[in-house]
Design a protein that fits this description.
The protein is of the alpha/beta class. Helices cover 31% and strands 15% of the residues. Helix 5 packs across helix 7 (165-176).
C-alpha cells in the first residue's frame, strides 16, 4: 500500500462523481485536492479529466489548463497521472514520464465513438454530403446525377492504418458496409478478415487499388510523416483519406496540394499538424474536405468510462499491482 492517505488532484467538477466512485475502492483514506496558486501540489495521484484540458490543445494551453499543468510540475510526491485521452503525447505527460511519474491513459474508452466518427466521414464523403451542403446553402436543387452520382460503397477497398481497438471497430463497420480491407500496423501478422496485412514500412504497396485510406494509428516514430507525398501520389485520384489518428501522421502540405489539384477525391480530417487549425489554412475552403475540431472521440458517455478506468487502476495502485494502459518506453 503506497500511503496511509492517497491525495488525488482532480477538478472540482469531477470531485462529486469521483468521490462516489472511490467509495468502492479498498484503500486507505482518500483526499481530493485542487490547484492552489503559489503552493506546491500535495498530490500523489492526478486524474486529468476532459474538463481540465477543455479547449486546450498540444499547441495552445488555456490558463485554466495551465493551472493544472503547473500543479503537476510542482508536486514533489506525484507518482502517477491518469489522463482522459487514449494518447499521452502532450509535452506535459512526456515531461512527467521522463521524471519517473507513471502515466496511464484511457485507451479503449472512446474506441467505439471514434470508429463511428470515422465511418460517418466515409459515409459523408461517399454520399457527397459536402456538395449537398453547398447546394443547400445556395438553395439549389441539384440531384446527384451525371458526374455527381455516388459510387456504390459495397465492393470498394479500404486500407486501415492502425489495428488497435479503434482500427478493429472501423474494420468491422466497413465490412458491414460491404467493403474489403487491407491492414497496416506494426506487425505483418495476418489479420483474418483482411485481404493483406503489412507493416508500416510496406504501406505504399497497398495504396494503388485503395478507395479509402483510413488512419487510426498512434503517433510513433514509425507513423510520424507516414502519409507523405509519395504515399498520397500512390493513391488513385478518386480515393479519399479519413484521419482520426494524429495530424503529424500526414504531410499536411502534400495533402493540401493533392486535394486542391483533385489528385485525391476528398478527405475527412479530425486532426491537424497545428490545432486549432489556423483560419488561413486552405483546408477550410476546399469543397472536397470535411474539417472537424479534433472531436472524433467526444460523447456524453466518455466521462463515466474514463472515470471507471481510473478507479480500476486506483485499486491496482493501492495494491501495488501493475497499472493498466501504462505509458512505456
Amino acid at each position: 500500500m503506497p500511503h496511509d492517505e492517497i491525495r488525488i488532484l482532480c477538478s472540482p467538477a469531477e470531485a462529486g462523481a469521483l468521490r462516489q466512485a472511490l467509495a468502492s475502492v479498498d484503500a486507505p483514506r482518500i483526499a481530493l485536492c485542487h490547484p492552489q496558486p503559489g503552493e506546491p501540489c500535495p498530490a500523489h495521484v492526478a486524474f486529468i479529466s476532459r474538463d481540465i484540458t477543455g479547449a486546450s490543445t498540444k499547441f495552445q494551453i488555456t490558463p485554466d489548463t495551465a493551472r493544472y499543468y503547473d500543479a503537476l510540475l510542482s508536486a514533489p510526491e506525484l507518482q502517477w497521472v491518469h489522463v482522459h485521452s487514449a494518447g499521452a503525447d502532450r509535452d506535459i505527460y512526456q515531461q512527467l514520464h521522463a521524471r519517473g511519474v507513471a502515466i496511464t491513459t484511457s485507451q479503449g474508452a472512446t474506441d467505439a465513438v471514434v470508429a463511428q466518427t470515422a465511418i460517418a466521414g466515409v459515409l459523408a464523403l461517399a454520399r457527397r454530403l459536402p456538395l449537398l451542403a453547398t447546394d443547400q446553402r445556395e438553395r439549389a436543387w441539384r440531384p446527384l446525377l451525371g458526374d455527381r452520382t455516388p459510387r456504390d460503397l459495397a465492393g470498394q477497398h479500404a486500407v486501415v492504418v492502425g489495428w488497435g481497438g479503434i482500427g478493429q471497430r472501423i474494420g468491422a463497420l466497413l465490412g458491414a458496409l460491404g467493403l474489403t480491407l487491407s491492414v497496416v500496423r506494426h506487425s505483418a501478422t495476418p489479420v483474418p478478415q483482411a485481404r493483406h496485412s503489412v507493416t508500416y514500412a510496406d504501406l505504399r504497396s497497398l495504396l494503388p487499388p485503395a478507395d479509402w485510406l483510413v488512419l487510426a494509428c498512434p503517433l510513433t516514430p514509425a507513423t510520424r510523416g507516414l502519409i507523405d507525398h509519395q504515399a498520397l501520389a500512390a493513391l488513385p485520384a478518386h480515393a479519399s483519406v479519413v484521419n482520426v489518428a494524429r495530424g503529424h501522421v500526414v504531410d499536411e502540405a502534400a495533402l493540401i496540394d493533392a486535394l486542391s489539384a483533385r489528385r485525391l477525391g476528398g478527405a475527412f480530417l479530425d486532426v491537424f499538424q497545428q490545432e486549432p487549425l489556423p483560419p488561413e489554412s486552405p483546408l477550410w475552403g476546399l469543397d472536397n474536405v470535411i474539417v472537424t475540431p479534433h472531436s472524433a472521440g467526444f460523447s456524453d458517455g466518455n466521462r463515466a468510462r474514463v472515470r471507471s478506468l481510473f478507479v480500476d487502476n486506483l485499486r491496482r495502485w493501492a495494491r501495488a499491482e501493475p497499472l493498466a494502459n501504462r505509458l512505456v518506453g
